[in-house]
Design goal:
Blueprint: E1 3-8, E2 14-19, E3 23-28, E4 35-40, E5 56-58, H1 60-63, E6 68-70, E7 74-80, E8 96-100, E9 103-107, E10 116-124, E11 130-139, E12 145-155, E13 160-164, E14 178-180, E15 191-193, E16 197-201, E17 210-214, E18 220-225, E19 228-234, H2 244-247, E20 250-254, E21 259-264, E22 268-270, E23 275-286, H3 295-305
Antiparallel strand pairs: 1-2, 2-3, 3-4, 5-6, 7-12, 8-9, 9-10, 10-11, 11-23, 12-21, 12-22, 13-16, 13-18, 14-17, 15-16, 17-20, 18-19, 19-23, 20-21
Length: 306
């Protein structure tokens, strides 16, 4: 049975708790929305929580005097490709939500400056540690907007993200496309470039950021920490379609504070009133440890969670 109730959480204000006997998530409703907490019952939170508000951006040039964007942490929706300051809408106001039997739909204020409307629908499985997140972006402007739904899950420190590489047999043609950001070093010790998987382990002692993307045709990615593995299974409706950042349907980022496990929808041109919906299905596994990354250890891990 799914339980839904409002509760306070740390310094994030009121949140909506959606839980069953095995899994609990909290979604902020005084700000955001963010899925600010996700964990198996009795286990540690898998999400990064920016209690001290360390990660901010001044966006007053577009959104008004003294306007600041806060990362807050947890899972959020953006529109890709990234653009500053447009992308960094200061979502610091109350969120309207409506509940249904096994979850709720969260609708923040429409963004007057960009004309974008966002919506997040969260549905919990009745008995299993599984939750479905439907992420929706709508254009309300007269002029068309091109973009992709960008689902960023900002995860706790000292965890790791594991991403499958494409395995399709393409003969003389390539089957993998990887994008690297200017600050990414191929020799970065946090990354293991395996034969079938790429694994990135967050390290709080390394200040430099790192980010890569891949055409994730397996449409799965895993974040591992605190003895748990959160596995995302996300929509890739058109594997041969046009995706952001050179064809990326999955991206991974790490800083000294957190790791991000991201999925992206296909790029679409949205006329006024058009929407894109991108769905992620999360399953959380227990008794999963990170360990040393090798081709063999990642094969063993994949057999348990993918």
């Amino acid at each position: 049975m799914v339980s839904i109730k409002e509760i306070p959480y740390k310094n994030f204000g009121k949140c909506l708790s959606i839980s069953n006997e095995k899994l609990e998530i909290l979604v902020t409703i005084d700000i955001g929305p963010r899925i600010i907490k996700c964990n198996l019952t009795g286990k540690e939170n898998l999400m990064f929580n920016d209690i001290d508000r360390k990660v901010t951006q001044d966006v007053s040039s577009l959104y008004g005097e003294d306007k600041t964007w806060f990362i807050y942490g947890g899972h959020r929706i953006w529109l890709s490709p990234e653009k500053f300051p447009d992308t960094y809408y200061p979502d610091n106001e109350k969120v309207v939500y409506t509940t249904f039997t096994n979850g709720a739909t969260f609708t923040p204020s429409q963004q007057a400056q960009t004309g974008l409307g966002f919506q997040m629908k969260v549905e919990m499985d009745e008995t299993e540690p599984k939750v479905t997140i439907e992420n929706k972006v709508t254009n309300t402007l007269k002029q068309p907007v091109e973009g992709a739904v960008w689902c960023l899950s900002v995860m706790d420190a000292e965890g790791a993200v594991v991403v499958p590489q494409p395995t399709e047999e393409t003969g003389l043609l390539h089957n993998r496309t990887i994008s690297l950001w200017p600050y990414t070093k191929m020799t970065d010790k946090r990354v293991f470039w395996g034969d079938k998987y790429i694994a990135l382990r967050q390290d709080p002692t390394i200040d430099e950021a790192i980010k890569f993307g891949i055409n994730n045709t397996a449409h799965k990615a895993a974040y591992i920490n605190h003895g748990q593995a959160l596995v995302k299974d996300f929509d890739v409706n058109h594997p041969d379609g046009k995706y952001p950042d050179g064809g990326m349907s999955c991206e991974v980022y790490a800083s000294a504070l957190f790791t991000e496990c991201e999925s992206l929808s296909e790029l679409k041109t949205l006329k006024k009133g058009d929407s894109i919906t991108h769905t992620e299905r999360w399953t959380v596994y227990d008794n999963i440890d990170i360990g040393e990354f090798t081709n063999e250890s990642l094969d063993e891990l994949a057999a348990k969670i993918f």
